[in-house]
Amino acid sequence: MLTQRFRGRGMVFAATAAASLGMAFLIAGCQSKADRDRTFTAALDHYYNTKPDCLWSSPVDITSGPDVKSEGMTKDFDALVAAGMIDRLPAAKEHHGRASEHQAEFQLSYLGRANWTADVARSGYGNFCYGHPQVNTIENYQRMSSGNEPQYTVSFRDSIALPAWAQIPAIQKAFPKVASEGNGETDSATLMKNGDTWKVQSVKTAG
Question: For 195, phi and psi rounded to 5 degrees?
Fold first, then answer.
């Protein structure tokens, strides 16, 4: 009878220990995922920190306006005028829309100068940049390789906190990418571990 009593207590102790150990593994797993999410977020934010998003893929000459080869940019300049970022010179208003005469000329407004990123290589050229993407959540990730330098494909949700001028309807209509990035996008990236740090190898955006 005594043996059975101790045996019963032993079984209860073993069951309790097993449950506690299982809970410990579960908690450790959750912490590990949270840590990895933070690590991936930090690596992606560091990558984006030096890569601001701008209206155009390359610098433009804001002073001359759209030329014969870039008729599609007319709506861009019109939107920037409506947003108060650039001014159309009075002498050029008469010829607006007649690109063949090359008379449309613009200048940066006071607001535009405060948000203009000049091209150091070419005078008059530059871009309007509206911010850096920031990671909101890590949605999922998948390991692509094993070994000392593991590689992961990471899916994440990011967005840009848009400045006031980039939230103006005229800008968001002319530049749909600005609106979508302000609302948030789901993008993906390839990250590789290099020593104690993670490096972003490539990024695939929603656009």
Answer: 70, -120
Provide the pairing of β-strand 125-131 with 53-54: antiparallel
pTM: 0.72
Q: Which two tokens stand for residue 128?
A: 């309007």
In single-letter form, the type of residue at position 183 comes to N
**How is residue 19 written in tokens?**
């449950």
Domain end, chosen from 115, 130, 145, is at 130
Residues 137, 206: Cα–Cα separation, whole Å: 15
**First-last CA distance in the chain:** 74
CA 78/CA 87 separation, integer angstroms: 10
Judgement on whether residues 136 and 36 belong to the same structural domain of the protein:
yes
Q: If we measure between CA atoms, which residue out of 51, 43, 45 comes closest to residue 197?
A: 43
| Residue 104 shares a structural domain with residue 151 | no
Neighbouring residues of 39: CB distance < 8 A, sequence distance ≥ 6: 198
Q: Which amino acid is at 81?
A: V
Residues in the chain, overall count: 207
Please write the tens of the pLDDT for every residue from 66-121: 664 466 688 899 999 999 999 988 865 555 554 444 454 789 999 999 999 999 99
